[in-house]
Amino acid sequence: MSDRRVPLALATVVCLLVAGCSGFAPAASPEPTSPTATPVEVPRAPDLDGGRLLAAGVSANGVFDPEALASAHRDRLATTTYHLVRNRTVRYANDSRAALRPRESLDFVHEESVVVPAADAYTFTKLETSRRAWTAAASYARVDVWFHEPVVRNRFVDAGGTARYWGFDDERSGGPLADPSSHRLVAADLAAVETRVTGQETVDDVTRFRLRGSSRADAANLSTPPLARDPRNVTFVGVVDERGLVVSYTLAYDATFAADGSRLRVRQTHRLRQVGDVDTARPSWLPAANESVVGSR
After folding, report:
1. For 214-231, what is each residue's pLDDT tens digit?
2. Where are the domains of the chain?
3. 142, 126 in Cβ contact below 8 A?
4. What is the pLDDT of residue 291?
5. Architecture of domain 10-32+53-295
6. pTM
7. How far apart are CA 136 and CA 130, in angstroms?
């Protein structure tokens, strides 16, 4: 079912719904030819704690500068197309069923994006399913964005299946979202853990490093979902490569449910599903959005 009336508030809602989630700000640089990467021995610097530099912000002893690594991740992705998926699951710690079926959790958020920086284009989808006890759920169960500078189209779908549209195409804006690579969230997550390098492998002539980590003393500063308090028992496993790309990671921790004091288990995942050779397909809902936006003028 579709509602063609477009509330003025939707222009603001899209920003609120993605606050704290993946954001997108396309950069216009073409995909370069990938050279064969050859690891180079780098002189030890005082802040590397005796370790050899493996990637920006990463030494043989682990991540020593989360912001430097996250920035390298952002800068690399600004030069190529990519498909990024991020999930967040919040469940009661003793709910073994939800551990196997994330969509049956107390709250489940799925974000997926395809970004083409050279074309100033991206698609973004955010889905959220939650139980009634999770009162912090977003107003809309699904948010879709299709952006191809200067055209912006958004679709908002509520839990009942009613769709609303919003958009514009008369000015260059960079799109309604920011931070295409989620580098701010990556930096915050990495800052919450003390990591070590546990191994390495070569994929397509690029060296990847496996990381494992646990809580830092400042884990209380971890960016947590609404209603989740006092994060603790943090664990981290991830993969980064020598170019600074944060390929994937899983961050998990216990927390306290502000509503009733129950123990929660929170799990956040980040995965670059593909880097290079992706494009932004026109979504099936785009004609309805175009008609709605044009008809509202």
Report:
1. 876 566 668 899 999 999
2. 10-32+53-295
3. yes
4. 93
5. Clam (2.50)
6. 0.82
7. 9
